Amino acid sequence: GLSQRYHLDDLTKSVLEGYLNLRPEHREVVKQYIFSMAEKYKKLQDVKSEIDQEVEAYRKELEAEAKGAAG
User: CB neighbours of 43 closer than 8 A, spacing ≥ 6?
Assistant: First the structure.
């Protein structure tokens, strides 16, 4: 079956069975929650990326200053 094909453990099988046994409107609520969490995660990653870019720019600025002071 699918559990063997995809090497699903008992918890994963239970989660999937629970989801499939929900009424369609309840599945929609679960999907919206998952989408909401994914969007929050994406925003967090975007912020981390911005910070990394700012840190790298600042590092280059400091390195340039150090070269100018040494040269």
Answer: none
Which among 19, 12, 13 has a CA at the least distance from the CA of 34?
19
Best CA proximity match to 17, nearest among 28, 2, 31, 29:
2
Q: Give the pLDDT confidence of 22-45 residue by residue, as tens digits.
A: 999 999 999 999 999 999 999 999
Residue whose token pair is 């870019």: 53
Site of tokens 């929900």 = 22
Helices (H), the chain: 2-5, 10-20, 24-70
Tokens describing residue 46: 């975007």
What is the C-alpha separation between 51 and 69, in angstroms, rounded?
27
